Structures are given as structure tokens and as C-alpha cells.
Amino acid sequence: MLLVQRRKRKVSQSEIIRVEHLKKYFPVEKSFLERVLARTRSFVKAVDDVDFSVNKGEVFTLAGESGCGKSTTGRLIVRLIPPTSGKVYFNHVDITQMSHEEFRICRRKLQIIFQDPYASLNPRMNIGRAVGHPLEIHGIAKDEEERKRVLEILDRVGLTPPDQFINLYPHQLSGGQRQRAAMARSLILEPEFIVADEPVSMIDVSLRTTIIDLMLELRKELELTYLFITHDLAVAKYISDRIAIMYLGKIVEIGEKQEIFSSPIHPYTQALLSSIPVPNPERKRRAVELKGEVPSAINIPSGCRFHTRCPYAEEKCKRAEPELIAVNPNHSVACQIMER
Amino acid sequence: MTEDCKRTKLLTVDGLTVEYWARRGRIRAVEDASFSLEKGETLGLVGESGSGKSTLGLSLIRLVPYPGRIVKGDLLLEGQNILKLKDEKMRDIRGRRISYVFQDPMTSLNPVRKIKTHFIELIQTHEPKISESAALERAKKLFKDVGIQSERINDYPHQLSGGMRQRVMIALALALNPSVVIADEPTTALDVVVQAKILDLLNTLQETYGMALILITHDLSIVLERSDKIIVMYAGRIVEQAKSIDLYANTQHPYSQGLLRSIPNIELADQKLEAIEGSPPDLLKPPTGCRFWPRCSYAMEECRSKEPPLFETGAEHLARCYLYRGEKEK
Which residues of A touch B248 (CB under 8 A)? Predict the structure, then answer.
């Protein structure tokens, strides 16, 4: 296959994405009068100083509850929104400093798949046009060549026979098929890195596995690297190599999948894991109780941002903000209690 | 079913069929559903979108939206056939004897009314003699039960978080002390930590109030963990019905088996997930014979021509599949 031949490079364990001190603060909209009266502006600190790197060929997962900043991080990495501060390196080049023109080349290599395939496909474009459109925008192929590539990629994501799907409109497809079409559209530019933002959470359970398996197959075949964003830790456990758990804009624990699931250290990770329903009626477990609810990202608690809900919180947690500290080379955690 | 048996059951559904009369044709969203519910029991109703689980839930309180209608069957609540009741009588039953918790609490609460108004309106509609202050007292007590500070009753819905709104919905459902509560995807819009809390809350309230609970969800993990009995629906049909333990340990229907194999379990190391090939049928033109045969790896000649009945494969265990042909038909 064309796509496969073209990319017969050697896969090394080198990093493809590095994120350094990434921050994204969204200003809170105020009325004119409020702005004049209140001198200070307030911000939603969606992503607040995040560092991590993703190695070539791996599936790296950002997990956490809604509002923890995982999707914003994903959008920052593919430069859909500019960061407030911090750097994103793609193949060791800082993409946050690039001009629009320079970034166009990188854009091909950095793609994103969204959660909602109903909203991410234009209802007035048939699948053939939607999938082929990126080729025209980037001036890679058109007409016959475009059609050829579209057919090839549709076949690859399992929309067979492709010459039938090419003429269909999004509303004529099922949810699973639509997500496949969205995947085809991001794959047609032969990307190296794909941010998959909750790609299966709107798809029925029985079809979810097929999409996940397709993603994993394509990773091998096209030498892709994924940043997988999910709130579903059971799915995260199935798909990822490494996982970062986010809480209120910060990574609280990061490590190899096995480490995180077999020996979670951060109280928040423990609570998250214990809340996941286990499909086994004989297993009666009680979740680790967390007090209250996630605080607002406008008024982030002082010190450790989790202390307001943490069952083990002490005085010092209210004062100093914990840093990510390595417990072993494959596992880091930001918690002052584990320092003992 | 004997008369005696009917009397002891809290809720008996017999041969319930619900159709939507759409412009493009008639859709049988639920076909010939029969089951019963005992006092204090938790029944899990699982299926994918379009399986008819919500339609079945709504038909139990006779709220199937237009153009849907219940075309056949009986619905006995403590021996009384509520399908035969006049609309006014039915209104009296809703909330007081059967209540419903909807999936999306934001669209089920009135955004321009304070939370307390919802409670006062609900309580006074059903019990006109109760004064406003007495109704408010009761609402505050309910707030304590569902774990919200009672001052929050003066808030508007948008001032509450998603989890709190769902707690309010549960409190509203419990306000008239019903004997059956139907919760339709009560936690789908919520995060895992909040989800676990809400489900725990439902379980505790069930113990204190002694109501029966019907938990409708697409998430098999939740019902396996939380319910006594499970009904699996596929394309409008009940395909398997069993106690949770039996459904887990001794899964009969190929669809249920497929579902179990396709959900990740975080307690298993190196699990291999398997998908069910194909996708659910279009109910405007359902496949002949068994609804599941186009996706079934065991499909036989017979499955394509004639729909299988429910076979009794064990104690209180029913499966709609010819693999169990030797067993007693239900």
C-alpha cells in the first residue's frame, strides 16, 4: 500500500512531542462596568504548568474528569489555540513560536480527531469531499489522484466498499462509520502524531472496541503516535502505554500503565480508579470517598489543589504546591504525603 | 401467570409492545416485553442506543412521546392495570407510585424557577392540603437525604453543578415516596467519581425508602455491579433476562456474551477485547427471524427465518436464542 511504503522509516524510542511549562488561561468575560470597577481580571486556569513528553509509536493518555484541562492540552499541542505561556516541541522544534506559514508543514503531521463525529463532519459535504479536502488545502493532490487516495484511506479505515461511501453524506452513516470517516480525514495527510479527543465516548459499546482496535492497528501500520484523551480509565487501561492523570489543570500522577493501575499513589488517582464500575456482580467494592466537588478553575485552592477534597490532607498541603517527583524511572507523582 | 402471583408482584409487565408511527413507517421500538419487579428489588435494563430501553422505561409511566403508542400488553402495578386508567388517574400515579429520573437534569428542571418551587409545585399538586411551608420542610429533609445543604434549595438550577442537579432530580423523584423509581441513564452525563456517588446514593436511599429501582443504562458494568436482576435488550427485544450473578457467570445469549467481551474491566490484566461485528439493525426494516442473526457468529438457517422465543435455560434465566432449543419455552 502506498501509505505504508512511503513511511518505512525506522521507529526509534525517541520523543516526538515535548511539552514544557504549558499554560492556558482563559480570561473570564466581564461587562464593561465590572471591568472598570474590579481592577483585577480573573482567569480560568484550564492548563496550569504542564510538562510531559510522548515517545514515538506510543499511546499516551491524558485522563481526568471534565474540566481538568485534558482537552485544552490536546488543542494546545496541535496549535488549535495559542498557549498563554510554555512550549510545545514537535520533533524537537518549538511549534509555539512558528509563523502561520511555517506551521503549515507541521499541521500535516499533527492531526486531531474529535469526540463528536456528528459535529466534526460538515453535513453538506459528502464523505469523499470531506476526506479529500485536506489534500486540496495543502496542495498535495487533486482530481484523480485525490480520489485515488481517498478510496485507499476509506478502505483502510474499514468503510468498504469505498466507492460507495465516497458519495454518502454524514447523516447517512452510523455513529461508528462517521468516526471512521473522521479518522480517514485526519489520516489522509499521513500524520505522525494524532490527538484523539474522546474518540469513542459517543459510540455504542459494541462498536467501541472496533474503533479502538482500528486505532491500534493503524498505529502499527502507519507508525503513528497517539495522544489519547479520555475520562474513561477502563478504556485508557486497554489502549495506552503511559498515562497522565490530570486534576484542575495539572498533572498529579504520570507513569507506565501498569504502574498507575497496580500501584496508584496519588489519592486522586486512587479515588478515580476505585470509582470505575467493575463488570462483576460478585465484586462489591466501595469507592474511596472524596469530599465535595471539583473546585472552580477560576479560584484554584492554595497549595496542593487537591487538598480541599483529599482524605489525607494535612496543614502543609494547604501551603506548598507539590512538584512531580519520580518514585521510580517510570512513575512520578505530585503529592507531599508520599514523600515520607 | 396465576392471579395469586400477580398480586404479590409490585410491577408486572406482560407482552408490552410499543410502536412509533413515523412518516417513513411503523417502528416497533419494544416488542412483547414481559417481566416483573418485586418490592425493593433493583432491575437493570441494558442495551445500546435504539434498543428500546428508554421507550420501555417511559411506557411504564405511560409517557411515550408522540408518535409513539403502547399497542399491546398489560402493565400491572400492585395488581391494577394502569394501561386502562384514565389520564387524570394516571397523573396521580406518576410521582406518587412510580417516578422517573431523567438522563439530563438540566433540561428536566425549569431554568427560570427556583429549586424549591419545583418541590412545592410537585407536592401540592399531588397533596393539595399540604401548606407551602410544610412542603418546603419536606423538601429540606429530602435535600439532607440526598446530601445537599438545605440552603441550596433557594438556588436556580444553573447555580448547581451537574452532580447536584442529578441529586435534586432524585430528591424530586422521592418526594412522594413512590414504590418504584425508574432512573434512565442517571449518571451518563456525569464524571466517574460523581457517578459512583450518585449510584451509592440511589442504593442507600433504596434501603431507607424501600422502593424498587429500575436502572436503565447502556453501561453493562454499572448494572452488573448494582442490580439484582438484569434485562438485556437488543433492537426492541428482550434477548436475555437473569439474575446478575447468572448473567455474569453463565451468559447465554450471543449478544450478551459479545457485550461482556467488549467492555474493559480494569481488574483484569492484559484483557483482550472483542467487538461485535456489524451494527444494530434499522428498525424500519428489521431482519427477518432473529434480530441478531446478521451479527451472530452462531447463526443457523433457522435463525434467519423464524424469530426464536424465550427459552428457560435455568432458574429465572431466559434467553431468546435457538442454541437453547431443548429447554422449556416461555
Answer: 279-282
pLDDT digits (tens, 9 = 90+) for A272-293: 998 888 888 887 666 677 888 8
Which chain B residues have a beta carbon less than 8 Å from that of A273?
266
Model ipTM over 0.90 = no
Rounded to a whole number of angstroms, the distance between the first and last alpha carbons of chain A is 55
Contact call for A205 and B259, based on CB within 8 A: yes
Chain-chain contact of B267 with A280 (C-beta, under 8 angstroms): yes
Name chain A contacts of B276, Cβ cutoff 8 Å: 206-207
Instruction: Judge whether B263 is closer than 8 Å to chain A, CB to CB.
Output: yes
Q: How confident is the model at residue A340 (pLDDT cuts 50, 70, 90)?
A: low
pTM value is 0.85
Query: Going from the N-terminus, what domains does chain B have, and what CATH number goes with each?
Result: 3-97+179-194+215-265+273-287 (3.40.50.300), 107-177 (no CATH)
Single-letter residue type at B126 = H
**Model pLDDT for residues B255-284, shown as the tens digit of each residue:** 999 999 988 888 887 788 888 888 888 888
Task: Say whether residue A33 is in contact with chain B using an 8 A CB cutoff.
Answer: no
Q: Is the minimum CB–CB distance between A203 and chain B shorter than 8 Å?
A: no
Query: What pLDDT digit, counting tens, does each position of A182-198 carry?
Result: 999 999 999 999 999 99
Handedness of CA B99, A203, B253, B196 (dihedral sign): negative
The predicted pLDDT at position A203 comes to 83
CA distance A103 to A31: 35
Question: In angstroms, how far apart are the furthest CA atoms of chain B?
Answer: 67
Whether residue B105 contacts residue B165, with contact meaning beta carbons closer than 8 Å, is answered with: yes
pLDDT given at position A287: 66
Query: Which domains are delineated in chain A?
Result: 15-109+191-278+286-301 (3.40.50.300)
B268 close contact with A: CB closer than 8 A: no
A/B interface, count of CB pairs below 8 Å = 119
What residue of B is the nearest CA neighbor of A271?
B193
B164 — contact with chain A (CB < 8 Å)?
A: yes
**For the residues of A191-249, what is the DSSP string, one character each?**
-SEEEEESTTTTS-HHHHHHHHHHHHHHHHHHT-EEEEEES-HHHHHHH-SEEEEEETT
Q: Which residue of B has its CA nearest to A260?
A: B266
The 3 state secondary structure assigned to A17-39 is EEEEEEEEEEECCCCHHHHHHCC
What pLDDT is recorded for position B114?
Answer: 95
